[in-house]
């Protein structure tokens, strides 16, 4: 049975509910559920509010009560089929007497998958694939992490027009503008891990926290991860009490990501220096690039990325530009020229 216009509208409503402001981006996927009556009217709209809370289907069923019987459940992600912090949603839908389930994205997590088969075995009609691309985009990082068994990696860099991240004397404050730095904090807040190398900690002594316009740390912080074998100076600011910090004693990007994935981390914001960046790029472990380009020329100094082993123009890496944004100056900050933020996706990336 094909999906109806009412089910299509309901799926759009479910996706919007899943993206309700304030819902955490991880570690659980964002999910929405709409219950439809036979006449296409909406009985209830539910959404998941984060780990440990009711799943979207259970939220909608609780609102509907006995009115859930005979409805169609339109869900952005295949109902789960396992017991974790909450019970299996597939069984909850069966018990509530739902007659039909329309799913956007099949669950890529083998632990939770199988709900559609359980529903069919109970005599419930199931359709899947409705607005699947929109549903995957809703949880793009979670989906990637589950499918590939490692976190999604966003590499952030700030550079001059001639590709320098620091001057010849080592000074780098500030290559980027105030507006670019504030934008960086916005992007940090979307990730669950900020990663640098021990060299960056030693040279720059960064805090790696998410801070507001007044330079105050926010209440919720990503994990600070420092990668490298050398010991850390205990006075470094990355070891303060504003956020949790982990020292990954390895020089292998794959091993570092494996350790972070084991900690249930799904989105790494890579802010290390040129050596660390080159290690991740050459390993095919960069999935997104955010580059801030300042209208300045240095002519010499530290490059934004170290040697990639490329010796001829034909072998150049050419990521696809997906967004270009001009970041204008910030009110009250005088003398800064606009920076340009490029968002790019590598044309090829390793698929574990």
Descriptive notes:
By secondary structure, the protein is α/β, with parallel strands linked by helices. The chain has helices at 5-18, 56-64, 89-96, 115-121, 132-138, 140-148, 178-188, 198-204, 253-262, 274-282; strands at residues 32-36, 42-47, 72-77, 100-105, 125-128, 152-160, 164-166, 193-197, 223-227, 245-248, 267-270, 288-294, 302-303, 320-327, 339-345. The strands form three sheets. The chain has an eight-stranded mixed β-sheet, sandwiched between helices. A five-stranded mixed β-sheet has the order 2-1-3-4-5, sandwiched between helices. Helix 4 (115-121) links the parallel strand 4 and strand 5 (125-128). The two termini are 36 Å apart.
Q: What is the count of β-strands?
A: 15
Sheet-strand content, in percent, reads 15-25%
Main sheet properties = 8 strands, mixed
State the distance separating the first and last CA atoms.
36 Å
Total number of helical segments? 10
State the share of residues found in helices, binned by percent.
25-40%
Weakly predicted, low-confidence segments: none
> Which sequence of strands runs across the widest sheet?
10-9-8-11-6-12-15-14
Order of helices and strands: HEEHEHEHEHHEEHEHEEHEHEEEE
- What would the average pLDDT be, to the nearest integer? 94
């Amino acid at each position: 049975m094909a999906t109806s216009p009412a089910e299509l509208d309901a799926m759009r409503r479910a996706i919007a509910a899943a993206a309700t402001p304030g819902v955490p981006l991880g570690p659980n996927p964002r999910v929405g559920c709409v219950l439809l009556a036979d006449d296409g009217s909406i009985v209830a709209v539910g959404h998941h509010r984060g780990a440990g809370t009711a799943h979207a289907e259970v939220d909608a069923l609780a609102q509907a009560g006995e009115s859930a019987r005979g409805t169609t459940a339109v869900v952005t992600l295949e109902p789960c089929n396992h017991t974790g912090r909450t019970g299996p949603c597939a069984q909850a839908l069966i018990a509530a007497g739902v007659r039909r389930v329309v799913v956007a994205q099949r669950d890529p997590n083998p632990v939770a998958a199988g709900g559609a088969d359980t529903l069919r075995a109970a005599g419930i009609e199931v359709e899947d694939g409705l607005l699947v691309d929109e549903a995957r985009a809703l949880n793009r990082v979670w989906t990637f992490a589950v499918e590939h068994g490692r976190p999604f990696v966003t590499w952030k860099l700030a550079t001059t027009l001639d590709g320098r991240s620091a001057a010849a004397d080592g000074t780098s404050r500030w290559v980027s503008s105030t507006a670019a730095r504030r934008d960086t904090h916005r992007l940090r807040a979307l990730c669950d891990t900020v990663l640098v190398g021990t060299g960056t900690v030693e040279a720059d002594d960064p805090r790696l926290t998410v801070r507001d316009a007044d330079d105050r740390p926010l209440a919720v912080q990503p994990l600070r991860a420092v990668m490298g074998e050398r010991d850390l100076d205990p006075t470094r600011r990355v070891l303060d009490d504003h956020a949790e910090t982990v020292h990954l004693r390895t020089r292998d990007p794959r091993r570092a990501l494996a350790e972070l994935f084991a900690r249930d981390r799904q989105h790494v914001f890579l802010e290390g220096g040129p050596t660390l960046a080159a290690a991740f790029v050459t390993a095919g472990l960069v999935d997104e690039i955010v580059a801030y380009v300042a209208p300045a020329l240095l002519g010499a100094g530290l490059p934004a990325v170290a040697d990639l082993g490329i010796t001829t123009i034909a072998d150049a890496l050419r990521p696809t530009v997906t967004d270009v944004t001009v970041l204008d100056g910030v009110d009250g900050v005088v003398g800064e020229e606009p920076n340009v933020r490029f968002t790019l996706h590598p044309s090829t990336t390793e698929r574990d």
